[in-house]
Amino acid sequence: MSAVAVNPTRPSAPLRDTGWWRHAAIYQVYPRSFADGNGDGVGDLAGVRASLPYLQELGVDAIWLTPWYASPLVDGGYDVADYRSIHPDLGTLDDAEALISEARQAGIRTIIDLVPNHVSSTHPWFAEALAAEPGSAARSRFWFRPGRGEDGSLRPTAWISDFRGETWTRTRNPDGRPGEWYLHLFTPGQPDLNWGHPDVRAEHEAVLRFWFDRGVAGVRIDSAVLLAKDPELPELSSTPEPGRHPYVDRDDVHDIYRSWRALADSYTEPKVLVGEVWLPEPARFAAYLRSDELHMAFNFDFMARPWAAAALRESIEVTLTAHRPVGAPPTWVLSNHDVTRPVTRYGREETSFAFATKRFGVASDLDLGRRRARAAALLTAALPGVLYLYQGDELGLPEVELPPEVITDPMHFRSGGVDPGRDGCRVPLPWTANGSSFGFAPDGVRAWLPQPRDWGRCSVEAQAGDPSSMLSLYRAALALRRSEPALAGTDFAWLDAGPDVLAFRRGSSDAGEIECLVNLGEEPVPIPPGHRVLLASHTVTDNKVEPDGAVWLRPITAEPITGETE
Ligand code: NOJ
Fold first, then answer.
1. For atom 6 of ligand 1, which residue has the closest CA?
2. Ligand 1 centroid vs 80 CA: distance in angstroms?
3. Within 13 A of 165's CA, how many CA atoms are on the CB side?
4. pLDDT digit string (tens) for 514-548?
5. Cα(78) to centroid of ligand 1, in Å?
C-alpha cells in the first residue's frame, strides 16, 4: 500500500455535527489484518492511512480500531502492556496521530478500543505486584487472594472463564514458594484490575484524556459490564439478584461510566463512549445508555439471532423498545472480530450465533449465505440508529477454516482444540485479485495468517467495478443512507407484508419515505404497486423480492404497502 491520497473528488464533511454518532456508519478495523504498509506481512497504521480513500468511497463516518497498543498479543492485543504506546508491528504514536488527523480530513472520525477490565501480565503494575508482598499496596490494584485448603492449593473461587477453564492462576512469592492466586476472567496473561482502587480510576481517566487530546472521537469499551467486582469475591450462586452478580453487570459499575461521560462531555466536540455490553436483559442493557453514561452499545442480541423473520422482528422490536426511554440510538451489528462471518453463518443449517457451539467442519452453503448477507446488509442499513460494519463484510468474505497449527487465538487453545477460535474472521483482507497476499502486503510477501487460494475473487479489485458485487451494494446502501433524510432520523413504522417478510417504513411525508422489505420466506414476494425500487440485494425480475432478498422502495403514490401494524 502506498502514498496517502484522500479522494479529492469528494469534499470532506465538515465534521461539525456533534450528534453525528446517532446515525453513523462505523467501520471496524482489525489493524493487523487490514492492510500492510511496511511489507512485513502484518497490517499496520500505514496501511490504514493508505486505505483512507477506500473507506471514504465506501462512505463510512468513523472507524473503530481494535487495540493498537504495545502488547504481548496473548489475546490479539486485548492484553495491553502500555496504553500510551502503539505496538511496534503497527507503527508509532506519530503514525497514530497522523492517522487520526488524515482520517478527519477525509471526513472519517476515529474511535479506539479501551481495555479497562484487565491489563497484560507484562504491564508494569502487574510486575510490581508480583515483586511485592501479599497484602502490599501494589497487589491491591489487582485481585490477589490466598488459595483455599490447608496449603492454599485450591482456587479462591470456582468461577469459569468466558474463554473456558479457570479464572485464577497461582503465583510464586519472591522467595520462590507457592503464593497467592490472581484473578483473570480471560487468560492468565490478562489479570483483572481492581476498580475499587483509586489508582485504577485515575489512570484510566488519564489514558482517556491522553487519546481524547490527540483527536480520537471516542472509545469502544472492552468488556464494559465486568469492571466492578464484589470485593468479597463470593462463589457464584445459581440465581444472583440483578446487579449483585460477583462480577457481571454490578450496579456500581455505572459510577465509572458516569465519570467518563462527564470527561467525554467536557470536550468542545464531546467524545463518544461505545460499550461492549453482552447482557440478555434489555432493561439492564439500556441502563448503560442513560443520558449520563454511554452513548451507545453493540446490539449483540440482534447479531446472534437466526435468519428467521419472527426472531429478527422480535429483536428489532425489543431493541427499539429498550432504547426509547433512554434516548440512545440503537446499533445494528452483523459481526465483529469475535464471531463467525455472516456469509458463512447464514449459509449453515443453524444460523444463530453462540460462542459455545463453535466447531470445525460445519457445512455452509456460501451462495445461500451470501444472498442472505446481502439482504441483511440492506436490513441493517435501513434500520434507525447506528450501523457497525466489520472489515471484510463489505466484501462478503466467508469465515476461513484455518489449520490448527496456524491458529493464535486463546479461545481455541483453552477449548482443548475443539473450538476453532476467532482467527477465521481475522484473515487479512484481499485487495487485489492476484499476488502473494492479494494486495494485503507488497508482492512477494505473505500475510501473517494464510489466506484461502481463491481469496482474490472476493478482492476489492475484483468487486469495485462490478455493480452486482457485495462491495457495490454496500457503497450504494451507505451513499443512500447518507443522502436520504428518511434514513437519517428516528421515524420507523412496521408494515404488514405477511409473517415471512420484514417490512417497515422510514421517514415521514415531510422528510420523504423509504420502505424496506426483506423476504425470509421461501416464495418470491411481489413488490407492491406504486413503489419504485431504489436498491435491491438481487436483480429484480417480475417486480418481485426473491427469497432471502431485500429491497429499498420509494413510495411514489399515496398507497402504503398494506397498512401500518402496531
Ligand atoms: C472482548 C473482545 O472483543 C475480545 O476480542 C477479547 O478477547 C475480550 N473482550 C477480552 O478482552
1. 78
2. 12
3. 15
4. 999 999 999 999 999 999 999 999 999 999 999 99
5. 6
